[in-house]
Amino acid sequence: MDKIALIVGASGIIGSNLARELLAQGWTTYGLSRTPKDEVPGLRPVAADLLDPASLETALADVAPTHVFITSWMRQDTEAENIRVNSALVRNILAALASKQSVQHVALVTGLKHYLGPFESYARAGALPPTPLREEQPRLPLENFYYAQEDEVYAAAERDGFTWSIHRPHTIIGQAVGNLMNMGTTLAVYASICKETGRPFRWPGSEAQWNGLSDVTDARIIAKQLVWAATTDAARNEAFNIVNGDYFRWRWLWPRLAAWFGVEAAGFDGTVHPLEEEMAGDAPVWREMADRYQLREPDLSRLASPWHTDLDLGRPIEVMTDMAKSRKLGFTEFQSTEDSFFDLFAQLRSDRLIP
After folding, report:
1. Is 293 one of the annotated active-site residues of the chain?
2. Mind listing the pLDDT tens digit for each residue in 182-236?
3. Cα–Cα distance between 6 and 44 in angstroms, integer?
4. Is 195 known to be catalytic?
5. Annotated active-site residue in 3, 30, 115, 146
6. Which of the residues 113, 115, 147, 195 is marked catalytic?
7. Which domains are delineated in the chain?
């Protein structure tokens, strides 16, 4: 039977990599976003407002997907608003497809805030879970938009009879412009500014993160897990962590990232130096650099998300993720984290997003 995919959030880091993976495997693939891009050859664009049911009904009138991949969310000022908006996003897309009776599987991407708590109480001391993080750990007694999104998927699956999978990545490393959570590109931009201005590439985070074990998720490997779970009977109706498969310490990786850019690395010095403060005055510097080096994106805020990188690197505990569940079921893909960063940096340079 033909496999027809609908990617919700196809212009993001995960969605764009997923589109490439699906197309390479011969899927008919639609990409839904408010303003579709044409960066993935073969992807069929669908323009719609996820918060407008009428807009979705019109945009999806001739689309009958067998598999839906929800990789999008919208950041709001409070967790209550995050819950209201992001649960509606999921509810609206699945309601718009319900009458078609074509959907066989829905995959939802959330993340480690499932275990560490929402933005307003993220990784607070006194309520920190044991690591490595495992899928069977219970929900926290906190309001969390990830839980609300999951519940929307469960309710629609009960109503419409499709199977589901939930995917919980750590920090995503991959290329996308305008993404809200983009550590890899943020660090690349920061290092480029450090090189331009002669500043040291200074570690911005906590001692626990500098010395502790960590892991990340390459956008290419979560794309592979999404397709695997959507096409593997044993993976139906399960939640899965997804990371590269290796562990590292930032004190080991940080000098390697600095060396790639030819800048001086400065490690943890007893004080947290948030990137949001370090880069607060860098927008004019970046605009000048964009003009000098003929870069494609002169707006620093479209490339760097220092607030989110601070959230990750400032955590008071080491954070790593257990992958045994999907490994036992047959998902054996692996990705070197060092290569994740270096591949991204090379791509950013090739695409003229960094000098």
Report:
1. no
2. 899 999 999 999 999 999 999 999 999 999 999 999 999 999 999 999 999 999 9
3. 9
4. no
5. 146
6. 113
7. 4-169 (3.40.50.720), 177-215+247-319+335-350 (no CATH)
